[in-house]
Specification:
491 residues; Vitelline Membrane Outer Layer Protein I, subunit A; 4 domains; seven-stranded antiparallel β-sheet; four-stranded antiparallel β-sheet
Length: 491
Protein backbone atom coordinates (compact mmCIF):
# COMPACT_ATOMS: atom_id res chain seq x y z
CA UNK A 1 0.00 0.00 0.00
CA UNK A 2 2.86 2.38 0.78
CA UNK A 3 4.35 1.92 -2.70
CA UNK A 4 1.06 2.75 -4.38
CA UNK A 5 0.75 5.86 -2.21
CA UNK A 6 4.19 6.89 -3.43
CA UNK A 7 3.09 6.32 -7.03
CA UNK A 8 0.04 8.55 -6.47
CA UNK A 9 2.34 11.28 -5.10
CA UNK A 10 4.67 10.86 -8.08
CA UNK A 11 1.73 11.16 -10.49
CA UNK A 12 0.73 14.45 -8.87
CA UNK A 13 4.29 15.79 -9.23
CA UNK A 14 4.45 15.24 -12.98
CA UNK A 15 4.05 18.29 -15.21
CA UNK A 16 2.09 18.03 -18.45
CA UNK A 17 5.29 17.75 -20.49
CA UNK A 18 6.77 15.06 -18.19
CA UNK A 19 3.46 13.18 -18.17
CA UNK A 20 3.39 13.06 -21.99
CA UNK A 21 7.04 11.97 -22.05
CA UNK A 22 6.32 9.22 -19.48
CA UNK A 23 3.42 7.85 -21.53
CA UNK A 24 5.49 8.05 -24.72
CA UNK A 25 8.46 6.17 -23.18
CA UNK A 26 6.12 3.28 -22.25
CA UNK A 27 4.74 3.02 -25.77
CA UNK A 28 5.95 -0.55 -26.36
CA UNK A 29 4.82 -1.83 -22.96
CA UNK A 30 1.21 -0.72 -22.62
CA UNK A 31 -1.75 -0.59 -25.03
CA UNK A 32 -2.28 2.58 -27.05
CA UNK A 33 -5.58 3.25 -25.31
CA UNK A 34 -3.83 3.69 -21.96
CA UNK A 35 -0.89 5.54 -23.51
CA UNK A 36 -3.02 8.22 -25.21
CA UNK A 37 -4.84 9.23 -22.01
CA UNK A 38 -2.36 11.73 -20.53
CA UNK A 39 -4.61 12.98 -17.75
CA UNK A 40 -3.73 12.35 -14.07
CA UNK A 41 -6.39 9.60 -13.96
CA UNK A 42 -4.95 8.14 -17.14
CA UNK A 43 -1.49 8.01 -15.55
CA UNK A 44 -2.88 6.07 -12.56
CA UNK A 45 -4.58 3.62 -14.93
CA UNK A 46 -1.29 3.28 -16.81
CA UNK A 47 0.56 2.44 -13.57
CA UNK A 48 -2.10 -0.13 -12.70
CA UNK A 49 -1.62 -1.66 -16.15
CA UNK A 50 2.12 -1.92 -15.43
CA UNK A 51 1.31 -3.89 -12.28
CA UNK A 52 -0.96 -6.23 -14.23
CA UNK A 53 1.64 -6.85 -16.92
CA UNK A 54 4.39 -7.54 -14.36
CA UNK A 55 6.44 -4.56 -15.51
CA UNK A 56 6.64 -3.35 -11.90
CA UNK A 57 5.82 -4.83 -8.50
CA UNK A 58 5.69 -3.63 -4.90
CA UNK A 59 9.24 -4.89 -4.31
CA UNK A 60 10.64 -4.60 -7.87
CA UNK A 61 10.36 -1.29 -9.73
CA UNK A 62 13.76 -0.97 -11.41
CA UNK A 63 12.05 -0.66 -14.80
CA UNK A 64 10.08 2.32 -13.53
CA UNK A 65 13.27 4.00 -12.28
CA UNK A 66 14.89 3.50 -15.70
CA UNK A 67 11.91 5.12 -17.44
CA UNK A 68 12.06 8.21 -15.20
CA UNK A 69 15.82 8.45 -15.81
CA UNK A 70 15.19 8.46 -19.55
CA UNK A 71 12.79 11.40 -19.30
CA UNK A 72 15.18 13.16 -16.84
CA UNK A 73 12.84 13.26 -13.84
CA UNK A 74 15.72 12.90 -11.39
CA UNK A 75 13.76 14.04 -8.34
CA UNK A 76 11.36 11.12 -8.82
CA UNK A 77 14.29 8.75 -9.42
CA UNK A 78 15.83 9.82 -6.13
CA UNK A 79 12.49 9.41 -4.35
CA UNK A 80 12.11 5.83 -5.66
CA UNK A 81 15.72 4.97 -4.75
CA UNK A 82 15.17 6.20 -1.21
CA UNK A 83 12.04 4.10 -0.94
CA UNK A 84 13.93 1.03 -2.22
CA UNK A 85 16.73 1.58 0.32
CA UNK A 86 14.16 1.95 3.07
CA UNK A 87 12.43 -1.23 1.89
CA UNK A 88 15.68 -3.21 2.02
CA UNK A 89 16.47 -1.84 5.47
CA UNK A 90 13.01 -2.75 6.78
CA UNK A 91 13.14 -6.29 5.41
CA UNK A 92 16.46 -6.93 7.16
CA UNK A 93 15.34 -5.31 10.40
CA UNK A 94 12.34 -7.62 10.96
CA UNK A 95 12.54 -9.31 14.45
CA UNK A 96 13.89 -12.83 14.63
CA UNK A 97 12.11 -15.00 17.25
CA UNK A 98 13.21 -18.57 16.82
CA UNK A 99 12.27 -21.16 19.46
CA UNK A 100 14.75 -22.02 22.17
CA UNK A 101 15.55 -25.34 20.62
CA UNK A 102 18.85 -26.50 19.35
CA UNK A 103 17.67 -26.07 15.78
CA UNK A 104 16.42 -22.59 16.57
CA UNK A 105 19.62 -21.59 18.30
CA UNK A 106 21.69 -23.02 15.48
CA UNK A 107 19.64 -21.11 12.91
CA UNK A 108 19.95 -17.88 14.87
CA UNK A 109 23.70 -18.33 15.23
CA UNK A 110 24.08 -18.87 11.51
CA UNK A 111 22.05 -15.73 10.73
CA UNK A 112 23.94 -13.64 13.28
CA UNK A 113 27.30 -14.87 12.03
CA UNK A 114 26.49 -14.09 8.39
CA UNK A 115 25.46 -10.51 9.21
CA UNK A 116 28.35 -9.90 11.55
CA UNK A 117 30.71 -10.13 8.59
CA UNK A 118 29.04 -7.15 6.85
CA UNK A 119 28.67 -4.77 9.81
CA UNK A 120 31.65 -3.03 11.46
CA UNK A 121 31.80 -3.35 15.21
CA UNK A 122 29.11 -6.09 15.37
CA UNK A 123 29.39 -8.63 18.20
CA UNK A 124 31.23 -11.89 17.66
CA UNK A 125 29.53 -15.26 17.43
CA UNK A 126 30.72 -16.23 20.94
CA UNK A 127 28.98 -13.23 22.44
CA UNK A 128 25.78 -14.06 20.57
CA UNK A 129 25.94 -17.64 21.85
CA UNK A 130 26.39 -16.38 25.38
CA UNK A 131 23.37 -14.14 25.06
CA UNK A 132 21.28 -16.93 23.62
CA UNK A 133 22.30 -19.38 26.34
CA UNK A 134 21.40 -16.88 29.01
CA UNK A 135 17.91 -16.62 27.57
CA UNK A 136 18.40 -13.10 26.29
CA UNK A 137 17.19 -13.91 22.81
CA UNK A 138 16.32 -10.58 21.29
CA UNK A 139 15.87 -9.35 17.80
CA UNK A 140 18.84 -7.45 16.38
CA UNK A 141 18.64 -4.86 13.72
CA UNK A 142 21.31 -5.08 11.06
CA UNK A 143 21.56 -1.62 9.47
CA UNK A 144 22.83 -1.64 5.88
CA UNK A 145 24.11 1.50 4.17
CA UNK A 146 21.19 3.38 2.68
CA UNK A 147 23.09 4.41 -0.42
CA UNK A 148 24.38 1.64 -2.62
CA UNK A 149 26.72 2.02 -5.55
CA UNK A 150 23.79 2.16 -7.95
CA UNK A 151 22.21 5.07 -6.09
CA UNK A 152 25.48 7.02 -6.00
CA UNK A 153 25.97 6.46 -9.70
CA UNK A 154 22.52 7.82 -10.47
CA UNK A 155 23.09 10.87 -8.29
CA UNK A 156 26.34 11.59 -10.10
CA UNK A 157 24.53 11.22 -13.41
CA UNK A 158 21.83 13.63 -12.25
CA UNK A 159 24.39 16.20 -11.10
CA UNK A 160 26.26 15.89 -14.39
CA UNK A 161 23.02 16.52 -16.29
CA UNK A 162 22.31 19.64 -14.21
CA UNK A 163 25.84 20.98 -14.78
CA UNK A 164 25.53 20.27 -18.48
CA UNK A 165 22.26 22.23 -18.71
CA UNK A 166 23.90 25.15 -16.89
CA UNK A 167 26.79 25.09 -19.33
CA UNK A 168 24.39 25.12 -22.25
CA UNK A 169 22.56 28.06 -20.71
CA UNK A 170 25.81 30.01 -20.27
CA UNK A 171 26.75 29.24 -23.85
CA UNK A 172 23.47 30.74 -25.03
CA UNK A 173 24.12 33.80 -22.92
CA UNK A 174 27.58 34.11 -24.44
CA UNK A 175 26.12 34.00 -27.95
CA UNK A 176 23.65 36.75 -27.05
CA UNK A 177 26.44 38.91 -25.62
CA UNK A 178 28.48 38.48 -28.81
CA UNK A 179 25.50 39.53 -30.95
CA UNK A 180 24.91 42.63 -28.80
CA UNK A 181 28.61 43.55 -28.97
CA UNK A 182 28.52 43.20 -32.77
CA UNK A 183 25.47 45.48 -33.09
CA UNK A 184 27.02 48.12 -30.82
CA UNK A 185 30.25 47.95 -32.82
CA UNK A 186 28.38 48.61 -36.06
CA UNK A 187 26.60 51.61 -34.51
CA UNK A 188 29.90 53.03 -33.24
CA UNK A 189 31.42 52.50 -36.68
CA UNK A 190 28.59 54.45 -38.30
CA UNK A 191 28.92 57.27 -35.78
CA UNK A 192 32.69 57.38 -36.31
CA UNK A 193 32.20 57.58 -40.07
CA UNK A 194 29.82 60.53 -39.71
CA UNK A 195 32.18 62.24 -37.26
CA UNK A 196 35.07 61.92 -39.71
CA UNK A 197 32.94 63.44 -42.46
CA UNK A 198 32.15 66.43 -40.27
CA UNK A 199 35.77 66.82 -39.21
CA UNK A 200 36.87 66.81 -42.82
CA UNK A 201 34.27 69.46 -43.50
CA UNK A 202 35.67 71.65 -40.72
CA UNK A 203 39.17 71.33 -42.20
CA UNK A 204 38.06 72.60 -45.57
CA UNK A 205 40.18 75.30 -47.19
CA UNK A 206 37.52 77.82 -46.23
CA UNK A 207 38.22 77.13 -42.56
CA UNK A 208 38.98 80.76 -41.77
CA UNK A 209 35.60 81.81 -43.11
CA UNK A 210 33.92 79.02 -41.20
CA UNK A 211 35.47 80.25 -37.95
CA UNK A 212 34.13 83.73 -38.58
CA UNK A 213 30.65 82.35 -39.05
CA UNK A 214 30.86 80.05 -36.02
CA UNK A 215 30.51 76.85 -38.03
CA UNK A 216 31.66 74.40 -35.41
CA UNK A 217 29.70 71.22 -34.79
CA UNK A 218 29.77 69.56 -31.41
CA UNK A 219 30.06 65.82 -30.92
CA UNK A 220 26.51 65.76 -29.56
CA UNK A 221 25.16 67.28 -32.77
CA UNK A 222 27.18 64.84 -34.86
CA UNK A 223 25.70 61.84 -33.03
CA UNK A 224 22.23 63.36 -33.26
CA UNK A 225 22.59 63.91 -37.01
CA UNK A 226 23.83 60.35 -37.53
CA UNK A 227 20.82 58.93 -35.72
CA UNK A 228 18.52 61.20 -37.72
CA UNK A 229 19.92 59.84 -40.99
CA UNK A 230 18.40 56.45 -40.18
CA UNK A 231 14.90 57.91 -39.85
CA UNK A 232 14.64 59.99 -43.04
CA UNK A 233 14.29 59.51 -46.78
CA UNK A 234 15.30 62.00 -49.47
CA UNK A 235 13.30 63.33 -52.43
CA UNK A 236 14.97 65.16 -55.31
CA UNK A 237 13.47 67.98 -57.41
CA UNK A 238 14.98 69.26 -60.65
CA UNK A 239 14.73 73.00 -61.21
CA UNK A 240 14.43 74.91 -64.47
CA UNK A 241 17.50 75.63 -66.63
CA UNK A 242 18.53 79.30 -66.66
CA UNK A 243 20.47 80.96 -69.46
CA UNK A 244 20.87 79.56 -72.94
CA UNK A 245 19.97 75.90 -72.54
CA UNK A 246 20.16 75.31 -76.32
CA UNK A 247 23.75 76.51 -76.56
CA UNK A 248 25.98 73.62 -77.57
CA UNK A 249 29.25 73.19 -75.70
CA UNK A 250 31.45 70.31 -74.74
CA UNK A 251 32.12 71.82 -71.32
CA UNK A 252 29.30 70.83 -69.02
CA UNK A 253 29.36 69.97 -65.35
CA UNK A 254 27.33 67.95 -62.87
CA UNK A 255 28.44 68.40 -59.26
CA UNK A 256 26.72 65.24 -58.02
CA UNK A 257 28.53 63.14 -60.61
CA UNK A 258 31.85 64.98 -60.79
CA UNK A 259 32.31 65.46 -57.04
CA UNK A 260 30.78 62.12 -55.93
CA UNK A 261 28.20 63.79 -53.72
CA UNK A 262 25.94 61.74 -51.46
CA UNK A 263 22.59 62.61 -49.92
CA UNK A 264 24.32 63.66 -46.71
CA UNK A 265 26.68 66.10 -48.47
CA UNK A 266 25.40 69.65 -48.57
CA UNK A 267 26.41 73.02 -49.94
CA UNK A 268 28.21 75.11 -47.32
CA UNK A 269 28.97 78.18 -49.42
CA UNK A 270 29.36 79.76 -52.84
CA UNK A 271 32.12 81.91 -54.33
CA UNK A 272 31.38 84.11 -57.33
CA UNK A 273 33.27 86.38 -59.72
CA UNK A 274 31.57 88.85 -62.04
CA UNK A 275 31.95 91.94 -64.14
CA UNK A 276 29.63 94.92 -64.27
CA UNK A 277 27.66 93.30 -67.09
CA UNK A 278 27.66 89.53 -66.49
CA UNK A 279 28.38 86.68 -64.10
CA UNK A 280 31.72 85.08 -64.90
CA UNK A 281 32.48 82.39 -62.35
CA UNK A 282 30.54 80.33 -59.82
CA UNK A 283 32.19 78.01 -57.34
CA UNK A 284 29.97 75.83 -55.14
CA UNK A 285 31.56 74.62 -51.90
CA UNK A 286 30.38 71.29 -50.46
CA UNK A 287 30.77 69.57 -47.11
CA UNK A 288 32.83 66.69 -48.55
CA UNK A 289 35.81 69.01 -49.14
CA UNK A 290 35.00 69.21 -52.85
CA UNK A 291 34.04 72.19 -54.97
CA UNK A 292 33.14 72.96 -58.57
CA UNK A 293 35.02 75.81 -60.19
CA UNK A 294 33.49 77.15 -63.38
CA UNK A 295 34.66 79.58 -66.03
CA UNK A 296 37.62 81.19 -64.28
CA UNK A 297 38.36 84.42 -66.13
CA UNK A 298 41.85 85.76 -66.50
CA UNK A 299 40.90 89.07 -64.91
CA UNK A 300 38.20 89.29 -62.25
CA UNK A 301 36.71 92.69 -61.56
CA UNK A 302 34.58 91.68 -58.57
CA UNK A 303 34.45 88.61 -56.32
CA UNK A 304 32.78 87.59 -53.09
CA UNK A 305 32.05 84.49 -50.99
CA UNK A 306 28.78 83.72 -49.25
CA UNK A 307 29.13 81.11 -46.47
CA UNK A 308 26.29 79.32 -44.72
CA UNK A 309 25.91 79.00 -40.98
CA UNK A 310 25.60 75.69 -39.13
CA UNK A 311 22.33 73.91 -40.03
CA UNK A 312 21.57 76.65 -42.58
CA UNK A 313 20.59 75.82 -46.16
CA UNK A 314 19.72 77.70 -49.34
CA UNK A 315 15.96 77.59 -49.93
CA UNK A 316 15.56 80.23 -52.68
CA UNK A 317 17.71 81.50 -55.54
CA UNK A 318 17.02 84.69 -57.49
CA UNK A 319 18.40 84.99 -61.02
CA UNK A 320 18.78 87.97 -63.35
CA UNK A 321 19.04 87.24 -67.07
CA UNK A 322 19.43 89.49 -70.08
CA UNK A 323 19.08 88.15 -73.63
CA UNK A 324 19.62 84.59 -72.39
CA UNK A 325 22.75 85.48 -70.40
CA UNK A 326 22.96 85.12 -66.63
CA UNK A 327 24.02 88.52 -65.31
CA UNK A 328 23.32 88.19 -61.58
CA UNK A 329 22.44 85.79 -58.79
CA UNK A 330 21.15 86.18 -55.22
CA UNK A 331 20.81 83.53 -52.48
CA UNK A 332 18.23 83.24 -49.69
CA UNK A 333 18.57 80.87 -46.73
CA UNK A 334 16.41 78.99 -44.25
CA UNK A 335 17.59 81.37 -41.50
CA UNK A 336 16.01 84.33 -43.32
CA UNK A 337 19.31 85.69 -44.59
CA UNK A 338 19.61 87.13 -48.08
CA UNK A 339 22.89 87.73 -49.86
CA UNK A 340 23.70 90.74 -51.97
CA UNK A 341 23.16 90.43 -55.70
CA UNK A 342 26.34 88.97 -57.17
CA UNK A 343 26.64 90.52 -60.60
CA UNK A 344 24.15 92.88 -62.17
CA UNK A 345 20.42 93.46 -61.62
CA UNK A 346 20.07 94.73 -65.18
CA UNK A 347 17.97 91.79 -66.31
CA UNK A 348 14.66 90.00 -65.98
CA UNK A 349 13.96 88.74 -62.49
CA UNK A 350 13.53 84.97 -62.07
CA UNK A 351 13.21 83.13 -58.78
CA UNK A 352 13.20 79.45 -57.90
CA UNK A 353 12.06 77.90 -54.64
CA UNK A 354 10.04 74.80 -53.77
CA UNK A 355 8.11 74.09 -50.60
CA UNK A 356 10.21 72.22 -47.99
CA UNK A 357 13.10 71.78 -50.46
CA UNK A 358 16.65 73.07 -50.06
CA UNK A 359 19.45 73.45 -52.59
CA UNK A 360 21.45 70.24 -53.10
CA UNK A 361 23.79 70.69 -56.09
CA UNK A 362 24.10 72.41 -59.48
CA UNK A 363 24.58 71.41 -63.10
CA UNK A 364 25.24 73.61 -66.10
CA UNK A 365 27.29 74.60 -69.14
CA UNK A 366 30.11 77.03 -69.75
CA UNK A 367 31.77 78.45 -72.82
CA UNK A 368 35.08 80.29 -72.88
CA UNK A 369 34.99 82.67 -69.91
CA UNK A 370 31.24 82.78 -69.42
CA UNK A 371 28.55 80.64 -67.82
CA UNK A 372 25.87 80.00 -70.42
CA UNK A 373 23.47 77.80 -68.41
CA UNK A 374 22.79 76.94 -64.78
CA UNK A 375 20.33 74.41 -63.36
CA UNK A 376 19.71 73.85 -59.67
CA UNK A 377 18.69 70.57 -58.05
CA UNK A 378 16.75 70.57 -54.81
CA UNK A 379 16.33 68.01 -52.06
CA UNK A 380 13.72 67.42 -49.39
CA UNK A 381 14.35 65.30 -46.32
CA UNK A 382 11.15 63.56 -45.27
CA UNK A 383 10.42 61.26 -42.37
CA UNK A 384 9.95 57.65 -43.43
CA UNK A 385 6.64 57.66 -41.53
CA UNK A 386 5.22 60.57 -43.52
CA UNK A 387 3.53 60.40 -46.90
CA UNK A 388 5.82 61.60 -49.68
CA UNK A 389 4.13 64.22 -51.89
CA UNK A 390 5.65 64.16 -55.38
CA UNK A 391 4.24 67.51 -56.55
CA UNK A 392 6.22 70.40 -55.05
CA UNK A 393 4.60 73.84 -54.85
CA UNK A 394 6.44 76.91 -56.10
CA UNK A 395 7.39 79.45 -53.46
CA UNK A 396 7.62 83.25 -53.73
CA UNK A 397 8.75 85.91 -51.31
CA UNK A 398 5.88 88.02 -49.96
CA UNK A 399 6.46 91.20 -47.96
CA UNK A 400 3.85 93.08 -45.94
CA UNK A 401 3.74 96.07 -43.60
CA UNK A 402 1.40 98.79 -42.29
CA UNK A 403 1.71 102.57 -42.49
CA UNK A 404 -0.30 105.74 -41.81
CA UNK A 405 -1.82 107.24 -44.93
CA UNK A 406 -1.44 111.02 -45.49
CA UNK A 407 -4.30 111.08 -47.99
CA UNK A 408 -6.95 111.25 -45.26
CA UNK A 409 -7.31 113.65 -42.37
CA UNK A 410 -7.58 110.91 -39.77
CA UNK A 411 -4.38 109.22 -41.04
CA UNK A 412 -5.89 105.79 -41.65
CA UNK A 413 -3.74 102.71 -41.07
CA UNK A 414 -3.13 101.01 -44.42
CA UNK A 415 -2.06 97.40 -44.92
CA UNK A 416 0.31 96.83 -47.86
CA UNK A 417 1.44 93.55 -49.40
CA UNK A 418 3.74 92.88 -52.34
CA UNK A 419 5.42 90.03 -54.21
CA UNK A 420 9.14 90.09 -54.95
CA UNK A 421 10.29 91.35 -58.35
CA UNK A 422 13.12 93.52 -59.71
CA UNK A 423 13.46 97.19 -60.56
CA UNK A 424 14.39 96.19 -64.11
CA UNK A 425 10.98 94.50 -64.60
CA UNK A 426 8.87 96.90 -62.53
CA UNK A 427 9.90 100.11 -64.25
CA UNK A 428 9.06 98.58 -67.63
CA UNK A 429 5.79 97.05 -66.49
CA UNK A 430 4.56 100.09 -64.55
CA UNK A 431 6.19 102.69 -66.84
CA UNK A 432 8.48 104.17 -64.22
CA UNK A 433 11.72 106.04 -64.75
CA UNK A 434 14.81 106.55 -62.69
CA UNK A 435 17.45 104.36 -61.14
CA UNK A 436 17.19 101.62 -58.57
CA UNK A 437 17.37 102.86 -55.01
CA UNK A 438 20.24 100.60 -53.95
CA UNK A 439 21.91 97.36 -55.01
CA UNK A 440 21.06 95.88 -51.59
CA UNK A 441 17.35 96.71 -51.89
CA UNK A 442 14.62 94.19 -52.65
CA UNK A 443 11.69 95.32 -54.81
CA UNK A 444 8.04 94.29 -54.56
CA UNK A 445 4.89 94.79 -56.61
CA UNK A 446 1.43 95.04 -55.04
CA UNK A 447 -0.24 91.62 -55.05
CA UNK A 448 -3.81 92.83 -55.70
CA UNK A 449 -4.61 95.99 -57.61
CA UNK A 450 -7.85 96.67 -55.72
CA UNK A 451 -6.04 96.89 -52.39
CA UNK A 452 -4.75 100.15 -51.00
CA UNK A 453 -1.05 100.75 -50.72
CA UNK A 454 1.79 101.54 -53.12
CA UNK A 455 2.03 99.97 -56.58
CA UNK A 456 5.63 99.08 -55.83
CA UNK A 457 7.99 99.52 -52.93
CA UNK A 458 11.54 98.69 -51.90
CA UNK A 459 12.91 97.35 -48.61
CA UNK A 460 16.42 97.61 -47.18
CA UNK A 461 17.69 95.70 -44.13
CA UNK A 462 14.25 94.08 -43.70
CA UNK A 463 12.84 97.10 -41.84
CA UNK A 464 13.17 100.28 -43.94
CA UNK A 465 10.50 100.76 -46.62
CA UNK A 466 10.56 103.15 -49.62
CA UNK A 467 7.87 104.00 -52.15
CA UNK A 468 8.36 105.40 -55.67
CA UNK A 469 6.57 108.64 -56.57
CA UNK A 470 7.27 111.15 -59.35
CA UNK A 471 10.27 109.07 -60.44
CA UNK A 472 11.89 109.42 -57.04
CA UNK A 473 12.22 107.21 -53.97
CA UNK A 474 10.71 108.31 -50.64
CA UNK A 475 10.94 106.62 -47.26
CA UNK A 476 7.88 105.62 -45.21
CA UNK A 477 8.39 107.21 -41.81
CA UNK A 478 5.33 105.46 -40.37
CA UNK A 479 6.01 101.96 -41.74
CA UNK A 480 5.64 99.31 -39.02
CA UNK A 481 5.46 95.51 -38.67
CA UNK A 482 7.59 94.84 -41.74
CA UNK A 483 7.57 91.10 -42.44
CA UNK A 484 8.96 89.13 -45.39
CA UNK A 485 8.48 85.39 -45.83
CA UNK A 486 8.55 82.70 -48.51
CA UNK A 487 5.10 81.25 -49.17
CA UNK A 488 3.46 78.91 -51.69
CA UNK A 489 2.36 80.92 -54.72
CA UNK A 490 0.72 80.20 -58.06
CA UNK A 491 0.81 82.79 -60.84
Amino acid sequence: MEFRSILIDISNQLSDANRHAFHFALGKVIPRKCRDDCTPDGTLRLLDCLFERGFIADDNFDNLINIFEQIQCFDIVEQLNEYRSRLIHTSIAEPVSPSCTDDGIQTLLSLAYSHSMSVNGSPSSDELVAELLCGNIQSRTIALPKETYTVNERKIKKRFSIVRSILYSKSNQLYMKLIIIFILSMILLLLSFCAIRHLRKSNFEEQSSLRQHGKYISITKIIYNCVQLLEFVYTMKEGSPYGNKLFWTNRSFDDARDLLLSYTDCCIGIRLEWTNISLKSVRFLYSNNQSSHLAIPEERLFSDTFMLQSNENINKINMYTNNGTIVGIQLCTTDGRKSSVFGSTNGHFLTESFENYTFSYATGKQHNDQIVMLQFHWMKRTSSKEKIITEARNMREICEFIFLSNKTADRTIVYAQGIESSWYDLKRKLHREGDAYDMAASYYQKTRQKDRGPELFAIINSDTVFYHHNNQWHMYNSARNVSCSIRPWSD
